[in-house]
Amino acid sequence: MEKNHALETDMYQLTMMAANELAGKSNELSTFDLFVRRIPESRNYLLSCGLEEALNYLKNLRFTEEQISYLKSLPAFQGEQHERFFEKLRNFRFTGDVWAVKEGTPIFSNEPLLIVRAPTFEAQLVETYLLNIIGSRTMFASKASRIVDNSRFYSQAMEFGTRRSHDPEAAIACARAAYIAGFVATSNLEAGKRYGIPVSGTMAHAFVMGFASELDAFRAYSNAFPKNTVLLVDTYDIEQGIRNAITVAKEMESRGERLLGIRIDSGDLAHFSRLARNILNENGLGYVKIVISNDLDEIKITDIRSKGGIADMLGIGTMVATSNDAPHLGVVYKLSEQETKSGEMQPRIKISEGKITLPGLKQVYRFYGRDGRAYMDEICLSGIEERKSGTPLLEKVMEGGNIIVKMPTLEEIKIHAESERKKLPDTLRGLTPNKYKVELSSHLLVIQTQLIESAKAAIRNGQGHNATAKKIK
Predict the structure, then answer these.
(1) Rounded Cα gap, residues 60 and 118, in angstroms
(2) Which of 10, 34, 23, 13 is nearest to 122 (CA)?
(3) Rounded to the nearest 5 degrees, what angle is found at the Cα of 385, between the Cα atoms of 384 and 386?
(4) How many Cβ atoms from other residues are within 10 Å of residue 470's Cβ?
């Protein structure tokens, strides 16, 4: 059964909706841009994620009588003037249009990930949920992508951050986002069931400690999982753990089986992974994989690799599930157009210091060099400017509240993400901070400048700043 998300929003969305209804402005069309104002310093790009979840939310958004009764009980909504508002909630359906970049597309500051055009009543309500979904999923995917970028020539990554995630549902979302970004498996069974992501798991130290000896524990596990045994070798002494794993590996060979791998979860991972590889090779066990874990992130992975550490697989948990170095994105949802009484869409702008927005309905074009690498993006006015030499990133995905595109499979999104990342300059895929060129079109700059000047003039005259701009063709 689809969960009802109608009240998973902020109180002020509902109060603004009620006030707009009383003011007769509910049915005016409004256009909102969802974008990241500034990319975190520890990111060179962001990997867009969460679109499918966002569109399903819009498609299925409804209010139940129980939810409406709760709202009626709140002091803010007491009074007969709100009866029409509640009646509108009873019949609520999202009827707007949505443009979005494809999931798995690298994006940069101020570029819309999502554009919503809908009656103000509808467009206002969905702000909080869309910010949460797109923001958190993009945060997970961007951290995971950075880890993959800095380990892609070294080893593969598995996600197992559920126990450290801020919420069980967030853990599932992280597993999906990490898979899109290039992780090969997750430990989360619900994510595996829901999305078809390969699942993987080994053992905990408690399992080893529960037997009379480490060797007994290893034997018990290999007997239970003869085709999928990875032994955790650092519960007591790591070198002895490796040698006990070799004993079990030889016993498995005698039965026509093979030990899949060993995992090291503590100590000097560079040193012990080298030691493990050498001992395994000396005993004819070059096929046994080495898995390392222990609060790994892209910086630790790079350090281990620089010290000669060896790993076939990386177990990544806490650092991807919490996006430790950038645990939130400055994702915002800002009004860029509003319908006038004559039915025209008028550009709107916010001019707060450090938070000036971009007016109008927009398109983002990406430009590629002869080598196939992206070198610049340009944010343009949609319908006014067209760049035949550039690739548009935003496509219309919802019209009249209906999804109008075939949603890609998870594997297709994953392939798209890898393909698009390969088109980025190599400098953006490393640890060193690097900037990518994003320009505003001349037309957009002119309208923005006109609106800023108009707003400031209105303020000087003691009025508000509902600015206007000359129409540009």
Answers:
(1) 16
(2) 13
(3) 125
(4) 8
Q: pTM to 2 decimals?
A: 0.95
> What are residue 97's phi and psi, to 5 degrees?
-105, 150
Q: What's the one-letter identity of residue 213?
A: S
- Tell me, yes or no, whether 349 lies in a domain: yes
CB contact at 8 A, 96 and 114: no
Per-residue pLDDT of the chain (473 residues; tens, 9 = 90+): 568 999 999 999 999 999 999 999 999 999 999 999 999 999 999 999 999 999 999 999 999 999 999 999 999 999 999 999 999 999 999 999 999 999 999 999 999 999 999 999 999 999 999 999 999 999 999 999 999 999 988 999 999 999 999 999 999 999 999 999 999 999 999 999 999 999 999 899 999 999 999 999 999 999 999 999 999 999 999 999 999 999 999 999 999 999 999 999 999 999 999 999 999 999 999 999 999 999 999 999 999 999 999 999 999 999 999 999 999 999 999 999 999 999 999 999 999 888 999 999 999 999 999 999 999 999 999 988 889 899 999 999 999 999 999 999 999 999 999 999 999 999 999 999 999 999 999 999 999 999 999 888 888 877 665 656 555 55
Q: DSSP characters for 387-452?
A: -TTSEE-EEEEEETTEE-SPPPPHHHHHHHHHHHHHTS-GGGGSSS-----EEE-HHHHHHHHHHH
Domain containing 64 equals 11-141+326-460
Helices of type H across 165-237: 168-181, 189-195, 205-209, 214-224
CATH of the domain at 71: 3.20.140.10
Q: What are phi and psi of 103, to 5 degrees?
A: -60, 140
How many domains are contained in the chain? 1
Whether residue 74 lies inside any domain: the answer is yes
Asked if residues 133 and 386 have their Cβ atoms less than 8 Å apart, the reply is no
In a domain, 401, yes or no: yes
Do the domain assignments include residue 298? no
